[in-house]
Amino acid sequence: MKFLERRRKDDEGLHYPYIVLFLSLIVVISLSPLFASPGIGAVLLTAFMFVILFTGIYALCERRIPVLAATCIALGSVAGGFLFLGFGIFSGFVLQYTLMILFYSFVVFVILFDLLRSDEISSRTISGAVCVYLLVGFVFATAYFLVENLWPGSFAFEGSLFSEPLHAYPRLLYYSFITLTTTGTGDIYPMVDGVRALVTLEAILGIFYIAIFITGMISILTVRGRKKEKG
């Protein structure tokens, strides 16, 4: 009963966990050029990734089991980042960003599950839907970043390969959202067939998500209108 009461209150006003997650994602996107700075860039990137881990866990605060699962994944990612930054162990880097991809995907799944159970449009559903869209962009950006560091030369920027894959995250984050929104500027492009398949998948998801989201909102508004007419 308490959960249902809290849920009703959230639907009536702002749902702060989703709002906080949204703001953290926007801040990371806005400050992403700093992550390319030599020396301090990797530290800043890791620090802001940890901020997203924290706000992502906070976004799931209403559900105990998802929070515990997300916390375990986040701790593993933090441990990987510590091994890489503190001791230069590359396997720590791989662990950190592999678990980041898993974490983003898990949060997307939980928020989507929450949205699918909603029968009305509120600040909760809108902020949650926007968070899902942004997190999908981060999933693929992190995957591209990991691939580029495992197999240098997977991407090219303005006709040249990335000289420093560890500093490529800002450009790959930009590329991910350009692909997700199907803008396609053409300055960054994949060089490997496997990566092209991943890029194609992101473009398809971006198109379908927007289409389904708009269709869902129209459907909810239609149902609500019919209920008012009957009432």
Please tell me about this protein's structure:
With 231 residues, this protein is mainly α. The chain has a single domain (2-230), classed as Helix Hairpins, CATH 1.10.287.70. It has helices at residues 2-12, 16-31, 40-59, 64-87, 90-116, 123-150, 169-180, 193-230; strands at 155-157, 160-161, 188-190. The chain has a 3-stranded antiparallel beta sheet. The relative contact order is 0.10.
Question: Brief description of this entry?
Answer:
By secondary structure, the protein is mainly alpha-helical.
CA(first)-CA(last) distance: 26 Å
What number of domains? 1
Which range does the strand content fall in?
under 5%
The count of helical stretches stands at 8
**Biggest pleated-sheet summary:** 3 strands, antiparallel
- Low-confidence parts: 1-12
- The amount of helix comes to over 70%
Rounded to an integer, what's the Rg over CA atoms?
19 Å
Strand order of the largest sheet: 2-1-3
CATH architecture: Orthogonal Bundle
* Shape estimate: globular
Main structural class: mainly alpha
CATH class division? Mainly Alpha
Q: On the 0-100 scale, what is the average pLDDT?
A: 89
Structure summary, number of beta strands: 3
Characteristic key phrases:
76% helix; three-stranded antiparallel β-sheet; disordered N terminus; 3 strands; 231 residues; globular; mainly alpha; single chain
Ordered list of secondary-structure elements with their pairings:
Elements: H1 2-12, H2 16-31, H3 40-59, H4 64-87, H5 90-116, H6 123-150, E1 155-157, E2 160-161, H7 169-180, E3 188-190, H8 193-230
Antiparallel strand pairs: 1-2, 1-3
